[in-house]
Specification:
The complex is a heterodimer. Chain A is of the alpha+beta class. Helix content of chain A is 26%, strand content 30%. Chain A is built from two helices and five strands; from the N terminus they run E-E-E-E-E-H-H. The longest helix of chain A is centred in the middle third of the chain and has 14 residues, at 54-67. Chain A starts with a strand and ends in a 12-residue tail after the last helix. By secondary structure, chain B is mainly β. Chain B has one helix spanning 70-75; strands at 12-13, 26-31, 39-44, 51-55, 84-91, 100-101, 107-110, 115-118, 130-131. The longest helix of chain B has 6 residues, at 70-75. The chains are: A alpha+beta, B mainly beta. The interface between A and B is large, with 37 and 43 residues.
Chain lengths: 93, 135
């Protein structure tokens, strides 16, 4: 069955606890437990495949975008704000 | 504060890019600000004008010593913890006093291979927006 989300076609499958889906050759997503509106999933993937909770992933994208390329004025202000010597026992120079 | 010196460190290689910047793979690390504060500009060599202010946390976040998840350490080829250099990304808002650092998702560098990745710590104890200055 195909559904739509954010414009892209989404494959919708029904699974029971203990059953899995394969994504490609080597990613296995297993339903461990269903309780109320909470589903526990087990994800087996090669180590080069990073797995993230979507909301965390999106939030990190936003955080990085707002951190990208600070303005020279902001950097200059920060330079005035920070102590001129490291407050801790950081490496001596 | 002097202008950043010419890049004096080998480039970092981020095969996965950064969150939101999947095509930014190669970065130079340029020391910024007072020596000892551990601040750097992470300057992208693939995208003109893209850079991030990052902090090696020893001076500004002395208690920050997260455990790197095994899967991430494996991917970076980190076998010896002393090879790991942590950099946290700083966000400078309009009011610079409100600057924050992302302690939840540090950039972990394998200092031996210069390979790096922005990882997500799986503990709930680290903030994505930790205040940079105590005010």
């Amino acid at each position: 069955m195909l559904s739509r989300r954010e414009g892209a076609a989404v494959l919708v499958l029904t699974r029971k606890a203990g059953q899995s889906v394969m994504i490609g050759q080597d990613v296995v997503v297993t339903v461990f437990e269903v309780r109320g509106d909470t589903v526990r999933l087990g994800i087996q993937a090669p180590r080069e495949v990073a797995v993230h909770r979507e909301e965390v992933f999106r939030e990190l994208q936003r955080a990085n975008r707002s951190a990208a390329s600070p303005s020279p004025a902001a950097l200059e202000s920060l330079g005035r704000l920070l102590p001129t010597r490291a407050p801790t026992d950081g490496p001596e120079r | 504060m002097s202008a950043p010196a010419a890049v004096d460190l080998p480039a970092l290689d981020l095969p996965a890019g950064l969150f939101g910047f999947p095509d930014a793979h190669r970065f130079a690390l340029v020391e910024w600000g007072e020596p000892g504060l551990g601040l750097f500009l992470l300057r992208c060599l693939d995208t003109e004008g893209l850079e991030f202010l990052v902090a090696a946390p020893h001076a500004l976040f002395p208690d920050y010593a997260p455990e790197i998840p095994d899967a991430d350490a494996d991917r970076l080829g980190l076998t010896d913890p002393s090879d790991a250099l942590l950099l946290v990304i700083v966000t400078l808002p309009d009011r610079v006093e409100d600057a924050t650092a992302n302690l939840l998702a540090p950039v972990v560098v394998n200092a031996r291979t210069r390979r790096a990745e922005q990882i997500v710590l799986d503990t709930g104890s680290h903030s994505m927006r930790a205040p940079l200055t105590r005010s």
